[in-house]
Amino acid sequence: MKAGESIFGYLARTRGGFDLPRYRQLIGAANAYKEGDEAAGLAAADATSRANARLLLRNTRIGELRAHPLFVDGLFTLIEQGVDPARAASLEDWKMGDLVDFLLEQPEEAIKSCMTGLSSDLIACVVKLLSNEALIAVSRKIFNPLPGSKVGARGYLGARIQPNSPTDHPDDIRWQVFNGWAFAVGDVLLGTNPVSSEVESVRTVENVLRDTLETFGLADVLPHCVLSHIDIQAEVEKREPGATALWFQSLGGTEGANQTFDVTLSKMLAHAAKRTGRYGLYFETGQGADGTNGHGEGFDMVVHESRKYGFARVLAQYVAQARRGAGKPTAPWVHLNDVAGFIGPEVFRTREQLVRCGLEDIVMGKLHGLTIGLDVCSTLHMEVNLDDLDWCLEQLMPANPAYLMALPTKNDPMLSYLTTAFQDHVRMREQFGYKVDDRMWAFFQRLGVIDESGRPTEHFGDPTWVYLQYRKRKGDVRSNEDILAEGRARMVEVRARGVWLAEGHGASTWELNPALEREIRTLYEDAKKSLFAELPGTFTDTLPGAVAVATRSEDRVDYILHPLSGEQLSRSSLASLRALRDAQAGQYDVQLVISDGLNAWALTDEGHLAPYLERVRTELTAAGYKVAPQPIVVKWGRVRAGYHIGEVLYGSLPDKHSHRAILHIIGERPGSGHHAYSVYITAPTVGTWAQEGLVDHDITRVVSGIADTALFPSTAAVATVNILEQLAPL
Question: How far apart are CA 376 and CA 386, in angstroms?
Answer without folding.
Answer: 11
